[in-house]
Fold this sequence. Notes:
By secondary structure, this protein is α/β, with parallel strands linked by helices. The protein has 9 helices and 14 strands. It has a 7-stranded mixed beta sheet, with helices on both faces. It has a 3-stranded antiparallel beta sheet with strand order 11-13-12, with no helix packed on it. Helix 1 (5-21) runs parallel beside helix 5 and helix 7 (138-148) crosses helix 9 (218-227). Bound molecules: S-adenosylmethionine. S-adenosylmethionine (SAM) binds at residues 9, 13, 58, 60, 63-64, 80-82, 85, 107-108, 128-131, 134-135.
Amino acid sequence: xxxxxxxxxxxNWEERTGVHLGPGGxxxxxxxxxxxxxxxxVEAELGPVEGLRVLHLQCHIGHDSxxxxxxxxxxxxxxxxxxxxxxxxxxxxxxxGAANARFVEAEVYGAPEALAGEAxxxxxxxxxxxxxxxxxDITRWAAVVAHFLxxxxxxxxxxxxxxxxxxxxxxxxxxxxxxxxxxxxxxRAPRLFDDPTDYADPDARLANSRTVSWLHPIGDVLAALxxxxxxxxxxxxxxxxxxxxxxxxxxxxxxxWTWPAEQWLPLALSLQATRPE
Length: 277
Ligand SMILES: C[S@@+](CC[C@H](N)C(=O)[O-])C[C@H]1O[C@@H](n2cnc3c(N)ncnc32)[C@H](O)[C@@H]1O
């Protein structure tokens, strides 16, 4: 059965935005203190952003966009298809005085049209944690990234590792709750989920609980970047990720969750790819 993935996912993100602005949501205290926190993986890998024009795709409420603006980026342009998220990002930027951050409501695939005149205009395209899984066509995503990069500019990408996204807490009665299979790695079809929970606020119950998402194997991501003319600089796999992907994970410093003992699977993947000069 066909589902309207844009409408389902947008309604879910509109509602989540309210949750993320509430008491159990995102911690914005470091932004208010003048230097928004980035997670330990991004902090270690991204490098300086001073003076760069940055495009943040799927920026949500501007948490990372404003953190990059506060680290001296010349300009950060955040793009997201949720009107509530864009309104929240603008309001946070106003509140903390991040005049070098601006936000545009647009779908990823519609971003070249929404930002007409900005082709090849960014030094850095930044997209992290919970992004490409919401997009059906990874080749088209990579083409959008390449469209915006200056020659010599780079994509920084970090997200849940696709091998880990195969799994969920689906094995009842195991202690600690071990992940069980959820989505076959090579299934490229959309998956409809009905899940009222939220990754940030464990007490939240979403009414707009149905979403459609895709698992993109690493090979597809790399092939898409290569087809878009981007050259892979490096790719890292991590035994930690920025949300509690499985109940058995334990918190660790730097806003990360990791395995309590044996590192069964990589939990996150990050990469940098550059548009050749
Ligand atoms: C998990 S957040 C990622 C942002 C960031 N890691 C964070 O936690 O602040 C996912 C974001 O993607 C946005 N999104 C989902 N599908 C989209 C699409 N097709 N076009 C633009 N934005 C989309 C949602 O509105 C949401 O704000």
